[in-house]
Amino acid sequence: MILKVAIFTVAVLAVAYTIRRWHRRELSSGIAVFWSLFWFVVVVFIWMPRASDAFAARIGIGRGIDAAMYLGFLVVFYLFFRVSVKLERLERHITRVVRHLALKDAKRPHPSSSIATGQTSEHSLHGPH
Amino acid sequence: MNIWIVVPAFNEAAVLGPVLGALRKRCPNVVVVDDASNDETDQVAVRQGVSVVTHLINRGQGAALKTGIDYALSQGAEAIVTFDADGQHRVEDIDALLQPLLLGSYDVSLGSRFLGNAFAIPPFRRIILRLAVVFTRIFSRVHVTDTHNGLRAFTRAAALKIRISQDRMEHASEILDEITIHHLRYREVPVTIAYTAHSRRKGQGNSALFKIAAKYLFHRISRL
In whole angstroms, what is the distance from residue B16 CA to residue B21 CA? Predict the structure, then answer.
């Protein structure tokens, strides 16, 4: 019973926090709905375990808690994939900025540089004769 | 023809001087892309009288290559050669690499150590690179004998089409993908790769190639 109350309290606080962030436009509507639904489902499964067993039976898994675990793993892996994709995009954006700055400050050799022994076209790469 | 040689470099101050000296004797247009080295790589390059482009933050060889290619294109390059800074490549192979492009028959030339020579290649590395060939044939649908050779040449048109978005070593597989996507005519050319103590110390470990494959596959999946 204590666990049920504790989880219910956490869920209420989490939903309140989600709504507050959505209200401040720090969270999109889609994400706010997702997390609110998530905590609602958690509370339903905790307070009505038979409902979770019925749901699990419908999707071909034995117990409600097992179904919750499998679905939880799926959700976590999906979110991990989404975060990884966003990180990759961020890395590419950083590279674009670094490249832009690098090209802007490119150092060109002094025209009088004689490292190539002052040779000109004889030692340039030729095309076919 | 306005030919540019792109040399991505990271902490290669110890060996870069002679490499650039040899390159400059064959081609006046050389650009070193210093990928935020901790040593004097950029200063060595400046002293050798080549163009130098410096990344403020280390981004990887793929990113450095793309920066160098962009620079060369901005300078009007009609053909671009990519060349490693660690002394593994031979300047003498550049002419053979460019020949198919100069004749107009191909858009991309790819160096192959397995058609040429690979001196002192560690045995397990040879096996890993052969596996990479199989991997590439499956995923990039490109039939090459050497998938991770930094000695390549592109025409200007090919360089403009090829998109390198992978910053690290996965760029090698991405370039092969781009060849397929844009139906570019490519040819492999025998080249010599000399494994030195320096290049072996600095190079990718064999296990890194599996990580490269995993990152490449992740990139492909995320593009679906």
Answer: 8
